[in-house]
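Fold these two proteins, one after the other.
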Amino acid sequence: MQLPVVMRSGEADGTIEAEDSVFDIEPNTHVMHQVLLAQLANRRAGTASTKTRGEVRGSTVKLFRQKGLGRARQGSVRAPHRRHGGIVFGPKPRKYTQRIAKMVRRLAIRSALSAAARGGSLVVVRDLSIEEPKTRVLREILQHLNLNRSTLVVTAAADETVKRCAANLPEVKTLPAPYLNIADLTSHRGLLMTVDAVRQAEAQWGGERATRRRAPLRAAAGGAGDA
């Protein structure tokens, strides 16, 4: 498919030919939801822990005899209904990890990219090189591109200058293209990618990697198909 390219000033700068298998498939919302839940579950530490009545401190001696006092029967001070007693059915350390197949993860990312391209939230910029790490510079670029809401800025490789520019922008996050994930793609309203980032995404999730689980990673075609 043809993706329009703009300059940092917001002016049109031609188009590029992007792989249909990455940017023009029918988004699979069920897979996107499944992978998103798995990613959020994998973030959980699972370290919450409470003590049962067998683990709290206190004597196990029965407080008073069972009958004859006219009082409700009581066990030890460790009973759950007593102050400082044990917890019933409380959390214990556990793993929340969910395993997702590689092809399913790749399909989710391609679906998110295709949804962004079809929905008009994807903006492709020719170049995003910034000389000085100034927040003002990146803010002006986003304003020129009409990206006034939460935005995910994707570069071909890790760019420390762009990352430092976005550090003081609360709704802007930067990522290298190989680290794209479904959680970040779905939690931002806008998606800004450089041309090199588009090529890197095609190399990462397009071609044989869209249909084969163990397909090798392709080299990014720098500038191929630019118009």
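Now the second one:
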Amino acid sequence: MAHSEEYYRTLWNHAVDAQLIVDGTGIIRNVNRRTEAKLGRWNEDLMGALAAEVFLPNDRERFQQLLHEVLDTGKELSANGLGVPTLSGHTLVMDVDMVLVQNPDGRSEVLLQLSDMTEKRRLEQQLLRSERLASLSQFASMFAHDIRNPLAGIKKTLELLGHRPELRSRPLAWWLADLQLTTDLLLGMINDMLDVYQESYSGLPLVASQFPAAGLFQEAIYLFRSEAESKGVTFHVDLPNEEVPVTGDRRRLQRVGINLIHNALKYSPPNGTITITVKIGCEGALPAGLGMPGDPVLLVRVEDEGPGVDAHDLPFLFEMFFRKKDGHDFRIGRGLGLHFCRLVVEAHRGRIWAANRAAGGAQFSIALPLSGTLACRSDL
């Protein structure tokens, strides 16, 4: 008999899953060693505690209902995806099986078997994300390809209208120029979308030319001037005294400027100021971990006076599809604009990062090398 008890105790303590014995009142009466290892809690800490307290607060009621049902009916029941916090601060995702056990003295107890599904759930979520990306990639490519042709037709019509003498007077000429600029920007966005998705994020093909650094934001400021005026927002631009030439894909870098200024405008308070600073710097001007070759770099900074960025969100801002958790904020986009900015800047061997201003508001910075050498593709 003693040998048999020792045999079953060995099986109990070396089971693959965490196991607990719970009495009819929901009190833990026994746990195996796997439970201690999984939860990081000693046997004496668990014994005599309520079994429901092993789980996250929002899962406890569900657990209690199933436990009572097992005790009342004798059925074997299961619960999937219950959260179990550990002392290390992690939360495990457990599938729980419940089996009624009758003691020789007639008392009913329940055997709980907790199977750790944390890694499986993580892989499932990763797979779902990959499938979502693949689906969106296909949709975006089809959408971008189909819409490009009618936009090209609109662009051609606007060019023809621009040659009409009766449309060269102001303000008609200004309005027509606005339409042409907006159409060009839309076509650029469509082409960028095709590049990003068809290249499977491996890089962006770049068309390099040399242009003044001040040109990075001129069109963006012009594009949003009406929206800024309606909010009373002013642009303050601080440029170097001398013209600084930049070698890069002008259209795509201008898109970066447009995205950053658009974000700053969305979150700016009424009568606020958006400050755009362009200057020459060096590697030492970059935050730790964002080192670049020792050549001079162009430092560009866009600052607003809005609410700033939650500190927990800062490391994830440039990830694809990342969105703030506040779903009621109408200003929240689809999580593509800043990701595109990162793709373009890193394709130019540069760096982009975000921070919060000490006086309040968000601060987005870009560092671009001024060596004059540009690779054809990024190495993402």
